[in-house]
């Protein structure tokens, strides 16, 4: 029986308590802390980033890092260099006698060449390195406190705020009072359980091992060139293997795991040798298992307690969306809660979190499931034979992979192209919403969509001109009275507001209007030729403005 010790001291006071210090909680803390909000970020584990999980930081997440001033720090963390080829190679096996089946270059837009559509390319980097960079930024923010080895026990709330009970082994239980609580505590979220939210969907679609191992000489033991993942489709089944970090650290992900079981290090090493066909010394660092599921919470909030990341959505990793989508949750919640606490955002802004993010989560889950559904079935065992029969099987399987798997590795339409079409704080202009294509991203200034990007003549990104709050992009030749009206309204509402007049950019062509209002998260809130009360609508303060 665990002894409960409650400290007899005054409760800790903060603005926002964030439970969970993975990428989602770190994103929320950075977004809040950079706006002067006081944050307590807690994590039950002794340190962040202990277990490698996601490996792709996509173009959207890297754009947030640029906004936070740390994109270059992450680039410096690339274990094999930021220009390491992000190739996906399908083959029968990595070792001697293996045959290449298909190949996809520059998966997830990770090539560092400049692209007009976004300011930052994706990056292949272990999640724990991303977390290290984000944590470093968090600790630079004076209003943010981080506590590891601190668990969430329970919480109660009122109209004024939340009182949470936390626990450490050293101090027992103690209380924290906050205005809001963000549950970024993962798929087994205690915060989700507290508010009675239910995950709906399908659990246990398949079961896999996640093996991390050190293998000096592995890179030189095959002839398929550098790649991020080598997808093995052989007589023994389907598996993925690839380099993960310096020090000859690799990962190996075979299917066929039994629920609730793990491999011994000896069995894991034997499986690596068997599937890859490479006989080099292998030191198994860890051998865990994971389960693919398709789950979405039936609600994201109760009062002042809100969920983000895996606490409210879980799906297979096909497409590399999960961690990146969670960072987007942290950003969305962070700027909106900060706006309310600073007095220029209304309750409608908080309510818009679920209204905006849940349809995006649903669309991304559907996309991940479509990718997952076309994972290659077990091929005939002759696929590895050096025979006419083997060659014919390889040709058929390779053609099928090349035709079906591009959708999984070229995802820009989903990463950048999903819009907040039905948001209560987006001013619909009555024009048709852009048609979504999962692979092809066509920038659009339609309200709710990500602000179209452009490079300026001096080499800066258009995004670099945006401020911490709302930004009004102004085309050349716009009547100054329209801009004055917008600036005046921002002043009356005390909204952080930046006027952007980008030289060398055809704003009207890019955004479909001479004026465009961009939110702190870089989504278009409004566009038009004549200023209205768009700012009031976008901050959820329409009633306040009407009464003013």
In a few lines, what is going on in this structure?
This protein is an alpha/beta fold and 548 residues long. It contains 15 helices and 24 strands.
What do these coordinates show?
The chain is α/β, with parallel strands linked by helices and 548 residues long. The chain is built from 15 helices and 24 strands. The protein has helices at 23-33, 59-67, 71-76, 127-138, 190-195, 265-276, 322-341, 347-373, 388-404, 406-409, 412-417, 480-493, 507-511, 534-538, 542-547, and strands at residues 12-13, 16-19, 39-43, 56-57, 88-91, 100-104, 123-124, 144-148, 151-157, 162-168, 172-178, 180-183, 199-214, 229-234, 237-245, 249-254, 283-297, 301-302, 305-307, 313-314, 470-474, 497-500, 515-518, 524-528. Strands 6-5-14-15-16-13-17-20 form an 8-stranded mixed sheet. Strand 5 and strand 6 form a beta hairpin. Helix 1 (23-33) packs parallel to helix 4 and helix 7 (322-341) packs antiparallel against helix 8. The chain is globular, with a radius of gyration of 25 Å. It starts with 11 loop residues before the first strand and ends with a helix.
Q: Which SSEs are present, and which pair or pack?
A:
Layout: E1 12-13, E2 16-19, H1 23-33, E3 39-43, E4 56-57, H2 59-67, H3 71-76, E5 88-91, E6 100-104, E7 123-124, H4 127-138, E8 144-148, E9 151-157, E10 162-168, E11 172-178, E12 180-183, H5 190-195, E13 199-214, E14 229-234, E15 237-245, E16 249-254, H6 265-276, E17 283-297, E18 301-302, E19 305-307, E20 313-314, H7 322-341, H8 347-373, H9 388-404, H10 406-409, H11 412-417, E21 470-474, H12 480-493, E22 497-500, H13 507-511, E23 515-518, E24 524-528, H14 534-538, H15 542-547
Parallel strand pairs: 1-11, 2-3, 2-12, 3-8, 5-14, 12-19, 21-22
Antiparallel strand pairs: 4-7, 5-6, 9-10, 10-11, 13-16, 13-17, 14-15, 15-16, 17-20, 18-19, 21-23, 23-24
């Amino acid at each position: 029986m665990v002894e409960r010790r409650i400290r007899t001291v005054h409760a800790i006071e903060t603005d926002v308590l964030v439970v969970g210090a993975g990428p989602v909680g770190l994103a929320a803390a950075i977004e809040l802390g950079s706006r002067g909000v006081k944050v307590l970020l807690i994590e039950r584990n002794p340190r962040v980033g202990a277990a490698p999980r996601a490996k792709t930081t996509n173009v959207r997440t890297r754009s947030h890092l640029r906004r936070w001033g740390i994109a270059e720090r992450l680039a410096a963390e690339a274990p094999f260099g930021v220009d390491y080829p992000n190739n996906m190679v399908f083959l029968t096996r990595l070792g001697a006698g293996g045959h290449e089946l298909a190949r996809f270059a520059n998966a997830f837009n990770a090539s560092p060449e400049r692209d007009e559509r976004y300011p930052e390319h994706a990056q292949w980097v272990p999640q724990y390195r991303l977390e290290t960079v984000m944590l470093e930024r968090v600790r630079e923010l004076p209003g943010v406190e981080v506590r590891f080895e601190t668990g969430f026990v329970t919480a109660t709330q009122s109209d004024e705020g939340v009182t949470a009970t936390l626990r450490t082994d050293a101090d027992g239980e103690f209380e924290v009072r906050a205005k809001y609580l963000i549950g970024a505590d993962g798929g087994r979220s205690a915060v989700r359980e507290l508010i009675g939210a239910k995950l709906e969907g399908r659990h246990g679609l398949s079961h896999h091992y996640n093996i991390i191992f050190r293998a000096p000489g592995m890179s030189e033991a095959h002839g398929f060139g550098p790649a991020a993942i080598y997808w093995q489709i052989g007589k023994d089944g389907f598996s993925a293997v690839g380099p993960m970090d310096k020090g000859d650290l690799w990962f190996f992900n075979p299917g066929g795991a039994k629920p609730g079981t793990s491999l011994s290090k000896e069995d894991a090493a034997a499986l690596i040798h068997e599937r890859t066909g490479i006989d080099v010394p292998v030191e198994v660092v860890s051998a865990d298992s994971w389960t693919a599921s398709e789950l979405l919470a039936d609600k994201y909030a109760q009062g002042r307690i809100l969920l983000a990341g895996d606490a409210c959505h879980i799906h297979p990793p096909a497409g590399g969306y999960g961690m990146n989508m969670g960072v987007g949750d942290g950003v969305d919640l962070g700027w909106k809660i900060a706006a309310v606490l600073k007095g220029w955002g209304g309750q409608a802004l908080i309510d818009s979190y679920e209204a905006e993010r849940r349809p995006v989560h649903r669309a991304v889950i559907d996309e991940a499931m479509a990718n997952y559904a076309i994972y290659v079935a077990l091929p005939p065992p002759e696929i590895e034979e050096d025979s006419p029969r083997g060659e014919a099987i390889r040709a058929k399987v390779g053609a099928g992979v090349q035709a079906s798997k591009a959708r999984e590795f070229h995802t820009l339409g989903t990463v950048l192209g999903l819009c907040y079409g039905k948001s209560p704080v987006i001013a619909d202009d009555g024009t048709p919403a852009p048609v979504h294509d999962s692979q092809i991203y066509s920038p659009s200034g339609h309200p709710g969509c990500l602000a179209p990007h452009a490079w300026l003549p001096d080499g800066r990104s258009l995004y670099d001109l945006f401020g911490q709050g709302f930004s009004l992009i102004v085309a050349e030749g716009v009547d100054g009275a329209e801009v004055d009206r917008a600036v005046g309204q921002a002043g009356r509402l005390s909204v952080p507001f930046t006027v952007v007049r980008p030289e060398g950019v055809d704003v009207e062509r890019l955004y479909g209007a001479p004026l465009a209002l961009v939110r702190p998260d870089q989504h278009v809130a409004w566009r038009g030729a004549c200023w209205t009360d768009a700012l009031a609508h976008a901050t959820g303060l329409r009633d306040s403005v009407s009464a003013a």
